[in-house]
Amino acid sequence: MEPRTKLNRNVAAGVLAAILLLPAAPLPASAAKDRVVEEARLTVDGEYVALVDPIRIEDGRLFLPVAPLASLFDATVAWDGGNEAATLCTSNGDTIVMRNAVPVVSYNDRRYVMDTAPFLADGRTYLPFRVVAELMNATVQWNEGESVAALSSASPAEAPVVPQLTEAKPYAEEELQLLAKLVQVEAGSESYEGQLAIANVILNRVNDSRFPDTIRDVIYSGKQFPPAHNGLLDKSEPNASALRAARDALDGRNNIEDAVYFFNPDVTSGSFWDELEVVAVIGNHAYAKS
User: Rg (Cα) of the chain, in Å, rounded?
Assistant: First the structure.
């Protein structure tokens, strides 16, 4: 990667006030733990820049709303509400895509794993400041004592700043489609959260030594997924929400911890199910592990 976007040293307060407003949505658990730093200040190559919205800190990481963050780099922002995805397009033609609560960033169509994830708070999308800066060949230093975030761009003579990100594990389109088809047939009428949970049951099994190690083998083995054996899965046509849930799960968004079973407690009973540890209840399903 060789990001080369220059910083905008003349960002005005009026530009920073142009925050991208989003539809109301429940905050992920991670957002509830963050700390708002009302007194925080920002410098761009040594010059102070006014902040309308405060910097947030979560687990020692800095976050800024997407619109002012993009303005710092003369980038444009597009918001996809259906997928809760922010796309930043730089003046150099680079493209960065980040999704709410998903710890994978797409940079020029290559996927990288982050050690954190964007979140929604107060109607705004907050992005990890350091990751975005490094993708645009800049660095961020946080002075805790003075509550100052110093953003610095590399000079043309300096080597590009390469972010310490590893490439995300690839997956085939066939795997995405099969997972989405299973999500659709099992939870097509449920909320996105319910669909995401179903997708994560499959992926949790893939990562559990007690189950097969591929999506296809997990779905077609055993008896938990009757649609795989009665023809319904083959006829399934995943809708946009099911596809989003499958894609987000493949990129690391997980709302059921390490649960590997799901069942409807109103119609399912027996010693096996009674002995499971339920970790989440979403819609009509309980999600559990043994």
Answer: 21
pLDDT of residue 91: 83
Q: Where are the alpha helices (DSSP H) in the chain?
A: 13-16, 29-32, 66-72, 129-135, 173-187, 192-206, 215-220, 227-230, 232-235, 240-250, 271-274
Largest separation between any pair of C-alpha atoms in the chain: 69
Q: Count CA atoms within 13 Å of residue 143 on its CB side.
A: 12
> Residues 287, 280: contact at Cβ < 8 Å?
yes
How many Cβ atoms from other residues are within 10 Å of residue 54's Cβ? Answer: 16
The model's pLDDT over 194-251, given as tens digits with 9 standing for 90+, comes to 999 999 999 999 999 999 999 999 999 988 899 999 999 999 999 999 999 999 999 9
CA distances from 34 to 7, 28, 115, 176 (A): 27, 11, 15, 32
Residue whose pair of structure tokens reads 């410098």 in the numeric block: 43
Q: CB under 8 Å to 63, separation ≥6 — which residues?
A: 34, 55, 56, 57, 118, 119, 126, 127, 128, 129
Listed in sequence order, the residues at least 6 apart from 277 whose beta carbon sits closer than 8 Å to its beta carbon are 288, 289, 290
Q: Give the dihedral of Cα atoms 281, 249, 243, 187; nearest 10 deg.
A: -20
The predicted-structure confidence for 131-154, as pLDDT tens digits, reads as follows 999 888 888 999 999 999 999 987
